[in-house]
Write a structure and sequence with these properties.
Number of helices: 18
Domain 4Fe-4S His(Cys)3-ligated-type: 81-120
Number of domains: 3
Oligomer: single chain
Domain 4Fe-4S ferredoxin-type: 140-171, 184-212
Shape: globular
Domain 2Fe-2S ferredoxin-type: 1-81
Distance between the termini: 55 Å
Bound molecules: 2 iron/2 sulfur/5 carbonyl/2 water inorganic cluster, iron/sulfur cluster
CATH class of the largest domain: Alpha Beta
Organism: Citroniella saccharovorans
GO molecular function: 4 iron, 4 sulfur cluster binding; DNA ligase activity; ferredoxin hydrogenase activity; iron ion binding
CATH architecture of the largest domain: 3-Layer(aba) Sandwich
CATH topology of the largest domain: Rossmann fold
Protein backbone atom coordinates (compact mmCIF):
# COMPACT_ATOMS: atom_id res chain seq x y z
CA UNK A 1 0.00 0.00 0.00
CA UNK A 2 1.08 3.58 -0.64
CA UNK A 3 0.58 6.21 2.08
CA UNK A 4 0.10 9.85 1.21
CA UNK A 5 -1.72 12.98 2.33
CA UNK A 6 -4.40 14.76 0.34
CA UNK A 7 -5.50 18.09 1.81
CA UNK A 8 -3.93 16.91 5.07
CA UNK A 9 -6.01 13.71 5.15
CA UNK A 10 -4.04 10.44 5.48
CA UNK A 11 -4.81 8.10 2.59
CA UNK A 12 -3.66 4.54 1.99
CA UNK A 13 -4.20 3.10 -1.49
CA UNK A 14 -2.74 0.28 -3.60
CA UNK A 15 0.26 0.93 -5.82
CA UNK A 16 -0.86 1.99 -9.32
CA UNK A 17 -3.68 4.23 -8.05
CA UNK A 18 -3.92 7.76 -9.51
CA UNK A 19 -4.19 10.85 -7.33
CA UNK A 20 -7.72 11.33 -8.67
CA UNK A 21 -8.77 7.83 -7.58
CA UNK A 22 -7.11 8.24 -4.19
CA UNK A 23 -8.92 11.55 -3.64
CA UNK A 24 -12.24 9.97 -4.58
CA UNK A 25 -11.65 7.33 -1.93
CA UNK A 26 -11.64 9.99 0.80
CA UNK A 27 -14.47 11.99 -0.78
CA UNK A 28 -12.30 14.82 -2.05
CA UNK A 29 -13.68 16.13 -5.32
CA UNK A 30 -11.21 17.18 -8.01
CA UNK A 31 -12.88 18.70 -11.09
CA UNK A 32 -12.20 16.93 -14.40
CA UNK A 33 -13.22 17.47 -17.99
CA UNK A 34 -11.57 15.15 -20.51
CA UNK A 35 -11.29 12.33 -17.98
CA UNK A 36 -14.20 9.87 -17.93
CA UNK A 37 -14.22 6.55 -16.15
CA UNK A 38 -17.02 4.12 -16.97
CA UNK A 39 -14.78 1.07 -16.58
CA UNK A 40 -17.62 -1.34 -15.79
CA UNK A 41 -18.95 -0.46 -19.26
CA UNK A 42 -15.51 -0.99 -20.79
CA UNK A 43 -14.85 2.76 -21.24
CA UNK A 44 -12.04 4.80 -19.70
CA UNK A 45 -10.73 8.02 -21.25
CA UNK A 46 -7.24 8.77 -19.97
CA UNK A 47 -6.07 11.43 -22.39
CA UNK A 48 -5.07 13.90 -19.66
CA UNK A 49 -5.01 16.82 -22.07
CA UNK A 50 -7.45 19.34 -20.62
CA UNK A 51 -5.37 19.96 -17.47
CA UNK A 52 -8.42 20.85 -15.41
CA UNK A 53 -7.56 18.37 -12.67
CA UNK A 54 -4.24 20.05 -11.82
CA UNK A 55 -3.22 19.68 -8.17
CA UNK A 56 -0.22 20.82 -6.16
CA UNK A 57 2.35 18.13 -5.42
CA UNK A 58 4.95 19.89 -3.28
CA UNK A 59 6.31 22.62 -5.55
CA UNK A 60 5.07 21.00 -8.76
CA UNK A 61 1.68 21.10 -10.47
CA UNK A 62 0.54 17.70 -11.78
CA UNK A 63 -2.64 16.36 -13.44
CA UNK A 64 -4.44 14.20 -10.88
CA UNK A 65 -6.05 11.92 -13.47
CA UNK A 66 -2.84 10.39 -14.77
CA UNK A 67 -0.30 10.88 -11.97
CA UNK A 68 0.23 7.79 -9.86
CA UNK A 69 0.48 8.10 -6.11
CA UNK A 70 3.90 7.85 -4.46
CA UNK A 71 4.81 7.18 -0.84
CA UNK A 72 4.83 10.36 1.23
CA UNK A 73 3.16 12.62 -1.35
CA UNK A 74 1.59 15.75 0.11
CA UNK A 75 -1.14 16.81 -2.31
CA UNK A 76 -3.14 20.01 -2.17
CA UNK A 77 -6.19 19.99 -4.42
CA UNK A 78 -7.71 23.29 -3.36
CA UNK A 79 -4.76 25.61 -2.83
CA UNK A 80 -5.04 29.04 -4.46
CA UNK A 81 -2.25 28.00 -6.83
CA UNK A 82 -4.18 24.85 -7.90
CA UNK A 83 -7.41 26.79 -8.34
CA UNK A 84 -5.72 29.50 -10.42
CA UNK A 85 -4.01 26.91 -12.59
CA UNK A 86 -7.30 25.14 -13.23
CA UNK A 87 -9.05 28.40 -14.00
CA UNK A 88 -6.33 29.47 -16.38
CA UNK A 89 -6.54 26.18 -18.29
CA UNK A 90 -10.29 26.50 -18.50
CA UNK A 91 -10.00 30.10 -19.73
CA UNK A 92 -7.57 28.94 -22.42
CA UNK A 93 -10.10 26.32 -23.54
CA UNK A 94 -12.87 28.92 -23.56
CA UNK A 95 -10.77 31.32 -25.63
CA UNK A 96 -10.98 28.84 -28.52
CA UNK A 97 -14.65 28.04 -28.00
CA UNK A 98 -17.78 29.68 -29.47
CA UNK A 99 -19.68 31.94 -27.09
CA UNK A 100 -23.17 30.98 -28.19
CA UNK A 101 -24.10 29.06 -25.02
CA UNK A 102 -27.56 30.67 -24.89
CA UNK A 103 -28.59 28.98 -28.13
CA UNK A 104 -26.36 25.90 -28.00
CA UNK A 105 -28.07 22.48 -28.17
CA UNK A 106 -26.15 21.54 -25.03
CA UNK A 107 -27.22 24.61 -23.04
CA UNK A 108 -27.92 23.39 -19.51
CA UNK A 109 -26.38 19.96 -20.16
CA UNK A 110 -22.82 21.02 -21.09
CA UNK A 111 -19.95 19.95 -18.86
CA UNK A 112 -17.77 22.86 -20.01
CA UNK A 113 -20.52 25.31 -19.09
CA UNK A 114 -21.04 23.68 -15.66
CA UNK A 115 -17.32 23.81 -15.01
CA UNK A 116 -17.12 27.51 -15.94
CA UNK A 117 -19.90 28.12 -13.43
CA UNK A 118 -18.31 25.92 -10.76
CA UNK A 119 -14.90 27.60 -11.15
CA UNK A 120 -16.53 31.02 -11.13
CA UNK A 121 -15.10 32.13 -14.47
CA UNK A 122 -16.27 35.68 -15.07
CA UNK A 123 -14.24 36.72 -18.09
CA UNK A 124 -12.42 35.07 -20.96
CA UNK A 125 -9.02 36.66 -20.68
CA UNK A 126 -7.29 35.21 -23.71
CA UNK A 127 -8.97 36.31 -26.89
CA UNK A 128 -6.57 35.09 -29.54
CA UNK A 129 -6.90 33.20 -32.80
CA UNK A 130 -9.74 30.70 -33.13
CA UNK A 131 -9.84 27.53 -35.20
CA UNK A 132 -12.97 27.08 -37.22
CA UNK A 133 -14.19 24.07 -39.18
CA UNK A 134 -17.44 23.35 -41.06
CA UNK A 135 -20.36 21.74 -39.21
CA UNK A 136 -21.35 18.29 -40.49
CA UNK A 137 -25.13 17.89 -40.54
CA UNK A 138 -25.18 15.39 -43.39
CA UNK A 139 -26.77 12.53 -41.45
CA UNK A 140 -30.25 11.95 -40.07
CA UNK A 141 -28.89 11.23 -36.59
CA UNK A 142 -25.81 13.18 -35.59
CA UNK A 143 -24.49 16.73 -35.99
CA UNK A 144 -20.79 17.37 -35.53
CA UNK A 145 -19.68 20.90 -34.80
CA UNK A 146 -15.88 20.73 -34.46
CA UNK A 147 -15.73 24.36 -33.31
CA UNK A 148 -17.24 23.21 -30.01
CA UNK A 149 -14.78 20.36 -29.64
CA UNK A 150 -12.33 20.64 -26.75
CA UNK A 151 -10.22 17.70 -27.97
CA UNK A 152 -10.97 15.60 -24.92
CA UNK A 153 -10.97 12.52 -27.24
CA UNK A 154 -13.78 10.82 -25.37
CA UNK A 155 -15.56 10.31 -28.70
CA UNK A 156 -12.56 8.78 -30.46
CA UNK A 157 -11.92 6.47 -27.50
CA UNK A 158 -15.56 5.38 -27.63
CA UNK A 159 -15.75 4.95 -31.40
CA UNK A 160 -12.39 3.17 -31.82
CA UNK A 161 -11.69 1.30 -28.58
CA UNK A 162 -15.17 0.44 -27.31
CA UNK A 163 -17.40 0.30 -30.38
CA UNK A 164 -14.50 -0.70 -32.71
CA UNK A 165 -16.17 1.12 -35.58
CA UNK A 166 -13.35 3.56 -36.31
CA UNK A 167 -15.31 6.45 -37.82
CA UNK A 168 -13.80 9.25 -35.77
CA UNK A 169 -10.15 10.14 -35.58
CA UNK A 170 -8.04 13.15 -34.70
CA UNK A 171 -5.90 14.69 -37.41
CA UNK A 172 -3.37 17.51 -37.42
CA UNK A 173 -1.10 18.65 -34.62
CA UNK A 174 -1.23 21.15 -31.81
CA UNK A 175 -3.53 24.09 -32.43
CA UNK A 176 -4.56 22.62 -35.83
CA UNK A 177 -5.83 19.33 -34.38
CA UNK A 178 -9.41 18.42 -35.24
CA UNK A 179 -11.55 15.36 -34.58
CA UNK A 180 -13.04 14.31 -37.88
CA UNK A 181 -13.72 11.36 -40.18
CA UNK A 182 -11.30 9.73 -42.63
CA UNK A 183 -10.69 12.19 -45.49
CA UNK A 184 -13.14 14.59 -43.73
CA UNK A 185 -16.01 12.63 -45.30
CA UNK A 186 -19.53 13.68 -44.30
CA UNK A 187 -20.90 11.30 -41.63
CA UNK A 188 -23.59 10.02 -43.99
CA UNK A 189 -20.87 8.66 -46.30
CA UNK A 190 -18.88 6.87 -43.60
CA UNK A 191 -19.19 3.55 -41.81
CA UNK A 192 -20.69 5.33 -38.78
CA UNK A 193 -23.43 3.17 -37.25
CA UNK A 194 -25.10 6.21 -35.64
CA UNK A 195 -25.03 4.42 -32.30
CA UNK A 196 -24.66 7.86 -30.70
CA UNK A 197 -22.23 6.67 -28.08
CA UNK A 198 -19.73 9.39 -29.10
CA UNK A 199 -22.54 11.87 -28.45
CA UNK A 200 -23.35 10.21 -25.12
CA UNK A 201 -19.85 10.93 -23.81
CA UNK A 202 -19.19 14.29 -25.53
CA UNK A 203 -18.97 16.91 -22.76
CA UNK A 204 -19.91 19.86 -24.99
CA UNK A 205 -22.14 20.57 -27.99
CA UNK A 206 -19.53 19.25 -30.45
CA UNK A 207 -21.58 16.11 -31.11
CA UNK A 208 -25.35 16.27 -30.79
CA UNK A 209 -28.48 14.67 -32.17
CA UNK A 210 -30.43 15.95 -35.15
CA UNK A 211 -33.58 17.36 -33.58
CA UNK A 212 -37.00 16.47 -35.00
CA UNK A 213 -38.99 18.51 -32.48
CA UNK A 214 -40.02 21.24 -34.92
CA UNK A 215 -41.35 18.71 -37.47
CA UNK A 216 -43.42 17.07 -34.71
CA UNK A 217 -44.85 20.42 -33.58
CA UNK A 218 -45.73 21.20 -37.21
CA UNK A 219 -47.55 17.86 -37.56
CA UNK A 220 -49.42 18.45 -34.28
CA UNK A 221 -50.64 21.81 -35.60
CA UNK A 222 -51.78 20.36 -38.94
CA UNK A 223 -55.49 19.56 -38.64
CA UNK A 224 -55.44 17.31 -41.71
CA UNK A 225 -53.07 14.87 -39.98
CA UNK A 226 -53.72 12.14 -37.44
CA UNK A 227 -50.60 12.10 -35.31
CA UNK A 228 -49.83 8.77 -33.65
CA UNK A 229 -47.03 8.46 -31.11
CA UNK A 230 -45.35 5.30 -29.78
CA UNK A 231 -42.91 5.05 -26.90
CA UNK A 232 -39.97 2.63 -26.69
CA UNK A 233 -39.49 0.30 -23.72
CA UNK A 234 -36.39 2.05 -22.37
CA UNK A 235 -37.78 5.60 -22.37
CA UNK A 236 -40.13 5.06 -19.40
CA UNK A 237 -37.29 4.12 -17.03
CA UNK A 238 -35.05 7.11 -17.85
CA UNK A 239 -37.28 10.09 -18.70
CA UNK A 240 -37.81 10.90 -15.00
CA UNK A 241 -34.08 11.69 -14.65
CA UNK A 242 -34.62 14.81 -16.78
CA UNK A 243 -37.04 16.02 -14.09
CA UNK A 244 -34.72 15.25 -11.16
CA UNK A 245 -36.65 12.14 -10.21
CA UNK A 246 -34.89 9.20 -8.57
CA UNK A 247 -33.01 7.15 -11.20
CA UNK A 248 -34.91 4.00 -12.18
CA UNK A 249 -38.31 5.57 -11.46
CA UNK A 250 -40.87 4.11 -13.86
CA UNK A 251 -42.80 7.06 -15.34
CA UNK A 252 -44.97 5.29 -17.94
CA UNK A 253 -48.25 6.89 -16.79
CA UNK A 254 -46.81 10.41 -16.57
CA UNK A 255 -45.19 10.04 -20.00
CA UNK A 256 -48.49 8.93 -21.56
CA UNK A 257 -50.40 11.73 -19.82
CA UNK A 258 -47.86 14.32 -21.05
CA UNK A 259 -48.12 13.07 -24.65
CA UNK A 260 -51.91 13.28 -24.47
CA UNK A 261 -51.69 16.81 -23.11
CA UNK A 262 -49.40 17.74 -26.00
CA UNK A 263 -52.17 16.87 -28.42
CA UNK A 264 -51.17 13.54 -29.99
CA UNK A 265 -54.28 11.87 -31.39
CA UNK A 266 -53.28 8.39 -30.23
CA UNK A 267 -50.67 7.42 -27.67
CA UNK A 268 -49.56 3.85 -28.29
CA UNK A 269 -46.75 1.63 -27.10
CA UNK A 270 -43.78 0.27 -29.05
CA UNK A 271 -44.07 -2.62 -26.59
CA UNK A 272 -47.15 -3.80 -28.48
CA UNK A 273 -44.95 -4.13 -31.55
CA UNK A 274 -42.18 -5.77 -29.51
CA UNK A 275 -44.68 -8.57 -28.75
CA UNK A 276 -45.44 -8.71 -32.46
CA UNK A 277 -41.72 -8.91 -33.26
CA UNK A 278 -41.41 -11.86 -30.91
CA UNK A 279 -44.22 -13.71 -32.68
CA UNK A 280 -42.44 -13.27 -36.00
CA UNK A 281 -38.89 -13.78 -34.77
CA UNK A 282 -39.67 -16.85 -32.66
CA UNK A 283 -41.47 -18.37 -35.68
CA UNK A 284 -38.40 -17.71 -37.81
CA UNK A 285 -36.09 -19.15 -35.16
CA UNK A 286 -38.13 -22.33 -34.62
CA UNK A 287 -38.19 -22.97 -38.38
CA UNK A 288 -34.42 -22.47 -38.72
CA UNK A 289 -33.74 -24.50 -35.57
CA UNK A 290 -35.80 -27.45 -36.80
CA UNK A 291 -34.13 -27.44 -40.23
CA UNK A 292 -30.72 -26.48 -38.80
CA UNK A 293 -30.45 -23.77 -41.46
CA UNK A 294 -29.03 -20.23 -41.23
CA UNK A 295 -28.07 -20.48 -37.58
CA UNK A 296 -27.32 -18.72 -35.36
CA UNK A 297 -30.25 -16.37 -35.88
CA UNK A 298 -29.29 -12.79 -34.97
CA UNK A 299 -31.77 -10.30 -33.55
CA UNK A 300 -32.34 -7.35 -35.86
CA UNK A 301 -34.04 -4.67 -33.80
CA UNK A 302 -30.98 -2.47 -33.21
CA UNK A 303 -30.33 -0.30 -36.30
CA UNK A 304 -26.70 0.45 -35.37
CA UNK A 305 -26.00 -3.20 -35.07
CA UNK A 306 -27.65 -3.84 -38.45
CA UNK A 307 -25.46 -1.16 -40.05
CA UNK A 308 -22.39 -2.62 -38.33
CA UNK A 309 -22.99 -6.11 -39.74
CA UNK A 310 -23.74 -4.66 -43.19
CA UNK A 311 -20.39 -2.88 -43.18
CA UNK A 312 -18.15 -5.24 -41.27
CA UNK A 313 -19.50 -8.79 -41.55
CA UNK A 314 -21.40 -8.85 -44.80
CA UNK A 315 -20.40 -12.50 -45.24
CA UNK A 316 -22.93 -13.20 -42.47
CA UNK A 317 -25.94 -11.41 -43.95
CA UNK A 318 -27.85 -14.68 -44.30
CA UNK A 319 -28.27 -14.99 -40.53
CA UNK A 320 -29.88 -11.85 -39.09
CA UNK A 321 -33.59 -12.28 -38.53
CA UNK A 322 -35.50 -10.62 -41.36
CA UNK A 323 -37.84 -9.00 -38.82
CA UNK A 324 -38.05 -5.23 -38.91
CA UNK A 325 -37.42 -3.57 -35.57
CA UNK A 326 -40.53 -3.18 -33.37
CA UNK A 327 -41.00 0.56 -33.95
CA UNK A 328 -40.87 0.02 -37.73
CA UNK A 329 -43.37 -2.86 -37.43
CA UNK A 330 -45.53 -0.52 -35.40
CA UNK A 331 -45.38 2.09 -38.18
CA UNK A 332 -46.41 -0.30 -40.94
CA UNK A 333 -49.23 -1.80 -38.83
CA UNK A 334 -50.48 1.72 -37.99
CA UNK A 335 -50.53 2.75 -41.64
CA UNK A 336 -52.26 -0.49 -42.74
CA UNK A 337 -54.33 -2.33 -40.08
CA UNK A 338 -55.07 0.67 -37.85
CA UNK A 339 -55.68 2.99 -40.83
CA UNK A 340 -58.21 0.51 -42.21
CA UNK A 341 -59.89 0.07 -38.83
CA UNK A 342 -60.23 3.83 -38.35
CA UNK A 343 -61.01 4.58 -41.97
CA UNK A 344 -57.95 6.78 -42.36
CA UNK A 345 -55.80 7.34 -45.43
CA UNK A 346 -52.19 6.35 -44.54
CA UNK A 347 -50.96 9.50 -46.25
CA UNK A 348 -52.70 11.52 -43.51
CA UNK A 349 -51.13 9.58 -40.64
CA UNK A 350 -47.92 10.81 -39.05
CA UNK A 351 -46.12 8.23 -36.90
CA UNK A 352 -43.77 9.62 -34.26
CA UNK A 353 -41.45 7.30 -32.32
CA UNK A 354 -40.09 8.31 -28.93
CA UNK A 355 -36.84 6.39 -28.70
CA UNK A 356 -33.78 6.18 -26.43
CA UNK A 357 -31.72 6.05 -29.59
CA UNK A 358 -30.38 8.37 -32.29
CA UNK A 359 -29.80 5.57 -34.82
CA UNK A 360 -33.59 5.14 -35.00
CA UNK A 361 -33.64 8.51 -36.81
CA UNK A 362 -31.39 7.07 -39.50
CA UNK A 363 -33.38 3.81 -39.55
CA UNK A 364 -36.67 5.65 -40.10
CA UNK A 365 -35.12 7.10 -43.27
CA UNK A 366 -34.08 3.74 -44.76
CA UNK A 367 -36.00 3.65 -48.03
CA UNK A 368 -36.98 -0.03 -47.82
CA UNK A 369 -38.79 0.55 -44.51
CA UNK A 370 -41.95 1.83 -46.15
CA UNK A 371 -44.23 -1.17 -46.67
CA UNK A 372 -47.42 0.82 -47.29
CA UNK A 373 -45.75 3.13 -49.81
CA UNK A 374 -45.18 5.69 -47.05
CA UNK A 375 -42.33 5.71 -44.53
CA UNK A 376 -43.29 3.33 -41.70
CA UNK A 377 -42.12 5.96 -39.21
CA UNK A 378 -42.10 9.68 -39.98
CA UNK A 379 -40.18 11.21 -37.09
CA UNK A 380 -38.05 9.96 -34.24
CA UNK A 381 -37.67 11.97 -31.05
CA UNK A 382 -35.21 10.93 -28.34
CA UNK A 383 -35.90 10.68 -24.60
CA UNK A 384 -33.98 13.94 -24.14
CA UNK A 385 -35.98 15.65 -26.89
CA UNK A 386 -39.23 14.46 -25.29
CA UNK A 387 -38.10 16.01 -21.99
CA UNK A 388 -37.43 19.27 -23.86
CA UNK A 389 -40.93 19.16 -25.39
CA UNK A 390 -42.52 18.54 -21.99
CA UNK A 391 -40.61 21.54 -20.61
CA UNK A 392 -41.51 23.64 -23.70
CA UNK A 393 -45.18 22.99 -23.00
CA UNK A 394 -44.92 23.80 -19.33
CA UNK A 395 -46.25 20.41 -18.30
CA UNK A 396 -45.86 19.73 -14.58
CA UNK A 397 -44.35 16.31 -15.21
CA UNK A 398 -43.75 15.30 -11.61
CA UNK A 399 -47.35 15.99 -10.61
CA UNK A 400 -49.29 15.09 -13.74
CA UNK A 401 -51.85 12.34 -13.13
CA UNK A 402 -51.00 9.00 -14.75
CA UNK A 403 -52.82 8.04 -17.95
CA UNK A 404 -53.13 4.75 -19.86
CA UNK A 405 -52.03 3.94 -23.41
CA UNK A 406 -54.80 3.92 -26.01
CA UNK A 407 -56.20 0.74 -27.56
CA UNK A 408 -55.54 -1.44 -29.50
CA UNK A 409 -51.83 -0.77 -30.16
CA UNK A 410 -51.15 -0.01 -26.53
CA UNK A 411 -51.42 -3.47 -24.99
CA UNK A 412 -48.23 -5.36 -24.16
CA UNK A 413 -46.73 -8.10 -22.02
CA UNK A 414 -43.66 -8.25 -19.78
CA UNK A 415 -41.76 -9.93 -22.62
CA UNK A 416 -41.95 -6.66 -24.55
CA UNK A 417 -40.67 -4.33 -21.86
CA UNK A 418 -37.48 -6.34 -21.36
CA UNK A 419 -36.48 -5.48 -24.94
CA UNK A 420 -35.10 -2.33 -23.39
CA UNK A 421 -32.30 -4.07 -21.45
CA UNK A 422 -29.52 -6.25 -22.86
CA UNK A 423 -30.51 -9.93 -22.94
CA UNK A 424 -34.22 -9.08 -22.94
CA UNK A 425 -35.02 -9.76 -26.61
CA UNK A 426 -33.36 -13.14 -26.28
CA UNK A 427 -35.30 -13.97 -23.13
CA UNK A 428 -38.57 -12.81 -24.69
CA UNK A 429 -37.88 -14.98 -27.77
CA UNK A 430 -37.19 -18.03 -25.61
CA UNK A 431 -40.44 -17.57 -23.65
CA UNK A 432 -42.43 -17.81 -26.90
CA UNK A 433 -40.21 -20.28 -28.79
CA UNK A 434 -40.60 -22.69 -25.87
CA UNK A 435 -44.35 -22.62 -26.36
CA UNK A 436 -44.06 -22.94 -30.14
CA UNK A 437 -41.82 -26.01 -29.81
CA UNK A 438 -43.48 -27.79 -26.87
CA UNK A 439 -47.05 -26.49 -26.94
CA UNK A 440 -46.63 -25.78 -23.23
CA UNK A 441 -46.22 -22.61 -21.17
CA UNK A 442 -42.78 -22.00 -19.75
CA UNK A 443 -43.09 -21.96 -15.95
CA UNK A 444 -39.90 -20.16 -14.95
CA UNK A 445 -39.70 -17.26 -17.39
CA UNK A 446 -36.59 -15.53 -16.04
CA UNK A 447 -33.14 -16.41 -17.42
CA UNK A 448 -30.83 -14.81 -14.89
CA UNK A 449 -27.64 -15.58 -16.88
CA UNK A 450 -28.89 -13.10 -19.48
CA UNK A 451 -29.39 -10.20 -17.06
CA UNK A 452 -26.94 -7.43 -16.12
CA UNK A 453 -24.43 -5.18 -17.92
CA UNK A 454 -21.73 -7.77 -18.65
CA UNK A 455 -20.58 -7.24 -22.28
CA UNK A 456 -21.14 -10.84 -23.42
CA UNK A 457 -23.57 -13.21 -21.70
CA UNK A 458 -24.09 -16.86 -22.60
CA UNK A 459 -26.65 -19.47 -21.55
CA UNK A 460 -27.83 -22.92 -22.54
CA UNK A 461 -31.55 -23.57 -22.36
CA UNK A 462 -32.93 -27.07 -22.60
CA UNK A 463 -36.18 -27.30 -24.56
CA UNK A 464 -37.66 -30.81 -24.65
CA UNK A 465 -34.31 -32.52 -24.32
CA UNK A 466 -32.52 -30.31 -26.88
CA UNK A 467 -30.02 -27.69 -25.84
CA UNK A 468 -30.52 -24.20 -27.29
CA UNK A 469 -27.27 -22.21 -27.03
CA UNK A 470 -27.79 -18.49 -26.75
CA UNK A 471 -25.64 -15.40 -26.27
CA UNK A 472 -26.19 -11.66 -25.91
CA UNK A 473 -23.70 -8.86 -26.52
CA UNK A 474 -24.06 -5.18 -25.69
CA UNK A 475 -21.70 -2.66 -27.24
CA UNK A 476 -20.35 -3.12 -30.76
CA UNK A 477 -16.87 -4.18 -29.61
CA UNK A 478 -18.49 -7.09 -27.77
CA UNK A 479 -20.69 -7.79 -30.80
CA UNK A 480 -17.55 -8.04 -32.92
CA UNK A 481 -16.05 -10.60 -30.52
CA UNK A 482 -19.23 -12.66 -30.51
CA UNK A 483 -19.51 -12.58 -34.30
CA UNK A 484 -15.91 -13.65 -34.68
CA UNK A 485 -16.68 -16.64 -32.45
CA UNK A 486 -19.81 -17.42 -34.47
CA UNK A 487 -17.92 -17.05 -37.77
CA UNK A 488 -15.32 -19.59 -36.65
CA UNK A 489 -17.90 -22.10 -35.52
CA UNK A 490 -21.43 -21.63 -36.80
CA UNK A 491 -22.74 -24.37 -34.48
CA UNK A 492 -21.51 -22.63 -31.34
CA UNK A 493 -24.71 -20.58 -30.89
CA UNK A 494 -28.32 -20.92 -32.00
CA UNK A 495 -29.59 -17.43 -31.14
CA UNK A 496 -27.58 -14.23 -30.65
CA UNK A 497 -28.93 -10.90 -29.44
CA UNK A 498 -26.91 -7.79 -30.15
CA UNK A 499 -27.50 -4.26 -28.94
CA UNK A 500 -25.03 -1.53 -29.85
CA UNK A 501 -25.26 0.46 -26.63
CA UNK A 502 -24.03 -0.34 -23.13
CA UNK A 503 -26.68 -2.26 -21.24
CA UNK A 504 -28.89 -2.27 -24.38
CA UNK A 505 -31.39 0.48 -25.20
CA UNK A 506 -31.39 1.73 -21.59
CA UNK A 507 -27.92 3.11 -22.42
CA UNK A 508 -28.91 4.49 -25.83
CA UNK A 509 -27.42 7.65 -27.31
CA UNK A 510 -30.75 9.50 -26.90
CA UNK A 511 -31.11 8.87 -23.16
CA UNK A 512 -30.39 11.38 -20.38
CA UNK A 513 -26.62 11.70 -20.09
CA UNK A 514 -24.91 9.37 -17.60
CA UNK A 515 -22.15 11.92 -16.83
CA UNK A 516 -19.88 9.23 -15.45
CA UNK A 517 -22.59 7.40 -13.48
CA UNK A 518 -22.83 3.82 -14.76
CA UNK A 519 -24.94 3.00 -11.69
CA UNK A 520 -27.76 4.94 -13.40
CA UNK A 521 -27.74 2.31 -16.12
CA UNK A 522 -28.08 -0.50 -13.62
CA UNK A 523 -31.02 1.28 -11.97
CA UNK A 524 -32.71 1.64 -15.37
CA UNK A 525 -32.14 -2.07 -16.08
CA UNK A 526 -33.56 -3.03 -12.70
CA UNK A 527 -36.62 -0.88 -13.40
CA UNK A 528 -37.13 -2.68 -16.72
CA UNK A 529 -37.05 -6.02 -14.90
CA UNK A 530 -39.46 -4.70 -12.27
CA UNK A 531 -41.89 -3.54 -14.98
CA UNK A 532 -41.78 -7.09 -16.43
CA UNK A 533 -42.47 -8.70 -13.05
CA UNK A 534 -45.41 -6.32 -12.48
CA UNK A 535 -47.14 -7.33 -15.71
CA UNK A 536 -49.98 -9.85 -15.44
CA UNK A 537 -48.94 -11.38 -18.78
CA UNK A 538 -45.26 -12.04 -19.49
CA UNK A 539 -45.24 -13.94 -22.78
CA UNK A 540 -45.89 -12.28 -26.14
CA UNK A 541 -48.31 -14.94 -27.42
CA UNK A 542 -50.64 -14.11 -24.49
CA UNK A 543 -51.22 -10.53 -25.76
CA UNK A 544 -54.93 -10.36 -26.72
CA UNK A 545 -54.50 -7.43 -29.12
CA UNK A 546 -51.75 -9.35 -30.95
CA UNK A 547 -54.00 -12.42 -31.22
CA UNK A 548 -56.70 -10.18 -32.67
CA UNK A 549 -54.29 -8.57 -35.13
CA UNK A 550 -53.36 -11.99 -36.53
CA UNK A 551 -56.99 -13.13 -36.57
CA UNK A 552 -58.39 -10.03 -38.24
CA UNK A 553 -55.54 -9.04 -40.52
CA UNK A 554 -52.23 -10.88 -40.70
CA UNK A 555 -53.28 -14.53 -40.58
CA UNK A 556 -50.54 -16.66 -39.03
CA UNK A 557 -47.10 -15.51 -37.81
CA UNK A 558 -44.78 -15.77 -40.82
CA UNK A 559 -47.67 -15.42 -43.32
CA UNK A 560 -47.11 -13.66 -46.62
CA UNK A 561 -49.00 -10.60 -45.35
CA UNK A 562 -46.78 -10.58 -42.24
CA UNK A 563 -43.71 -10.77 -44.48
CA UNK A 564 -44.94 -7.94 -46.67
CA UNK A 565 -45.45 -5.62 -43.70
CA UNK A 566 -43.12 -6.80 -40.96
CA UNK A 567 -39.96 -8.16 -42.58
CA UNK A 568 -37.07 -6.56 -44.43
CA UNK A 569 -33.79 -7.31 -46.18
CA UNK A 570 -30.23 -6.06 -45.76
CA UNK A 571 -27.81 -4.11 -47.92
CA UNK A 572 -24.61 -5.95 -48.94
FE1 LIG B 1 -35.08 -0.35 -28.27
FE2 LIG B 1 -36.63 -1.76 -29.67
S1 LIG B 1 -35.92 -2.30 -27.57
S2 LIG B 1 -34.52 -1.21 -30.31
O1 LIG B 1 -33.62 -1.29 -27.79
O2 LIG B 1 -36.42 -3.51 -30.32
O3 LIG B 1 -34.41 2.29 -29.36
O4 LIG B 1 -36.21 0.91 -25.79
O5 LIG B 1 -37.73 0.77 -29.04
O6 LIG B 1 -37.78 -0.70 -32.29
O7 LIG B 1 -39.41 -2.43 -28.67
C1 LIG B 1 -34.58 1.33 -28.83
C2 LIG B 1 -35.70 0.48 -26.67
C3 LIG B 1 -36.87 -0.02 -28.98
C4 LIG B 1 -37.39 -1.15 -31.28
C5 LIG B 1 -38.40 -2.16 -29.10
FE1 LIG C 1 -18.61 6.04 -33.87
FE2 LIG C 1 -21.11 5.44 -32.98
FE3 LIG C 1 -20.22 7.96 -32.97
FE4 LIG C 1 -20.73 6.77 -35.29
S1 LIG C 1 -22.21 7.27 -33.70
S2 LIG C 1 -18.97 8.04 -34.83
S3 LIG C 1 -20.12 4.66 -34.82
S4 LIG C 1 -19.39 6.24 -31.77
Amino acid sequence: MINLKINNKEVSVPNGTTILEAAKKVNIHIPTLCHLDLHDLGFVNEEANCRICMVENGKKMVPACNTLVKEGMDIKTNSIKAINFRKMNLELLLSNHPKDCLVCNKNGRCELQSLAAALNVREIKYDGERMTFPTDNSSYSIIRDPDKCILCKRCTTMCNNVQTVGTLTDVGRGFNTVVTTAMHRPMIDTNCTFCGQCLAVCPTGAISEVSNISQVYKALMDETKTVVVQTAPAVRVALGEEFYMEEGTIVTGKMVASLKQMGFDYVFDTNFAADLTIMEEATEFVERFKTKKNLPILTSCCPSWVKFIEHKFNNLLDIPSTCKSPHEMFGSITKSYFAKKMNLDPKDIVVVSIMPCVAKKYEANRKELSSTGYADVDYVVTTRELATMIKDMNIDFKNIEDAEFDDPLGESTGAAVIFGASGGVLEATLRTAYNMITGEDLKNVEFHDLEGIKGIKEAVVNIQGTDVKVAAANGLGNARKLLEMASEDRSRFDVIEIMACPGGCVGGGGQPFLRGRSDKLIKRMNAIREEDRNKPLRKSYENESIKKLYKEFLGEPGSSKAHELLHTSYIE
